[in-house]
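Hey, resending since the last one bounced:
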Amino acid sequence: MPRQLSRRDLGRAAALGAVGLATLPAARVLAEVSGVSNAAVDPIFSAFVERVGGVAIVGDPLTERFERNGRSAQIFANFLLEHWPENAGTDYEVQPALLGQVASGGRYFQQIAPFRSEATVEYIWQTRHSVRFGFLEFWNRLGRTALLGLPISEEVPEAGGETAQFFQRGKLSYLAARDVPIQIEPLGRIYLAALNDGLDAAYTVHPPQPQTPGASTSVQLTVKNTGDDTWAASGARAVTIGLRWADSHNPSTRATPSPISLSDDVASGGSVTADIALQMPAVPGPFRLQPDLRIGSEWFTARAVKAPIIDAPARLAMPDIRVGLLDISDDNPGVHQATIFSTAGLEVRDEGGMALASLGGDERVAIRRDIPNEMHILDLPDGTQIQTAGRVFVDPVEGSLLRLEETSPQRTYRGSMEFAWLPSYRSAWVVNTLPMDDYLSGLVEQNDDIPWEALRASAIAFRTYAYTVRGPRRERGALFDVAASTRHTPTLYTRDQVYHGYARELSGTRLRDAIHDTRGCVLTYEGRTIHAVYFSRADGRTRSWHEEWGGPIKPWAIAVDDPYSRGQSLLGHGIGLPLRSANAMAAAGANGEQILAAYYTGIDFEHVY
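The structure tokens again:
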């Protein structure tokens, strides 16, 4: 029978609490967990050990079989194996535990931007890390994820000139001077020693509220000594409290907060509270921080003491966008006015800010252009008529949405509206002004039921396109930033995105969720946002911008092979992201960033608000 080694969970699994990001004390291991010098491979693990290459691969057994989280387990020099009886008769009856993650203390390793894999360098989109050259060859030889799992770090330098890489279940190291340069690191041995070294901690963290870029703030945290050893306030083994950035966003040179020394020794069971000053990065982004303790020059996480990761976003105000909804001109036959109403009430004012009318829900104002007199005429529900010059603004009362009869069945919109004359085209326009993410939530380019990562990729592409075209159009004084790209805007129909307003949200809210999840994220090339065009379907490859539309070569818009559309016919211009391939790629397991990097070459991900 397996021996029960601890009345609590073996390991340092410090779970995040629901309130205040409090972490529960990590479990300690009883004395009987100590390694056994003459331990043998337990029979329930022997077939697995033999299949993967014997003790030369998994290392010598260090313990007898014991119970861990309700499963039989055994620690070997390099791995911790667990028995999964529900998978009996399959290759997954015995599985290596996530020892690489546990032994690293959950330490954040900086992720990298997606790239196209090659024979000697492979990007692993699930963890946003890569495996390269000799490590890649060794990982493949060991069955890839079957033994080591996925990479959770890039190659990192370690003491003695070694280069190492952490994986979910283990760790590899490289040293050219060794007879065998690449070896599996003895994480099982290191972990077993760390479990009994007397160091442990639990965190309660109050994350900062979202800040503007460059702002000064602070992070408040309380750390409890849940180990056996006293934390010294001075001397060679003095303990300090610090914060590290735990994300892959630029700028990489942002200031790391200064560590705080303990004012007094902290005995087992005691705690210390700190308020660590923090300078936010100078650019917006969904930044994260990881508090950690350091004993001497070594972080607690390097000794398998888990530390939480907290959100510390830097945000700018969300920009607005102006959408041309309705064209009133000879190019749009049958449309002679704009009939605006609302769900709960609206206010009408002129260009100078003077109030012209207040209407209740479903009460309509019809606005039309008197061309000979260069006036606007407003027909109100009570039969009165108002004449005014210049632009006319319509704002909903709080909690109300505006409606535009002439764009039915869409006709319901967030934000405000404006009625304006465009003399150069002899047309009047209704323009919808609203926050950028509200606009993106009204796009009908993708259905709401596609895979989540395809929605995330689409949200980033939609935002990048809108943000990129918005700038130059505003600089040249255009009446609006984008057209709704429907039959209602024929005079200035452009290749803009198809916008149906609030009607799109009635078909589902997952796109809106994806837009919120990617807040402010855009695609850039050499620091500038790209004109992120996309189309419906490819035919085995995409086209380059230069190939289809001429002009200078755009290095981010070159032709690429597209295995997800082989055997299909081209639908659209063929440049950039094929939306149907994005859906198929996400269904195959890719994340949004990997999808975008596959079709826009050499791009980076940055945040603009």
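The first strand starts at residue 66 and ends at 68.

Sorry for the duplicate.
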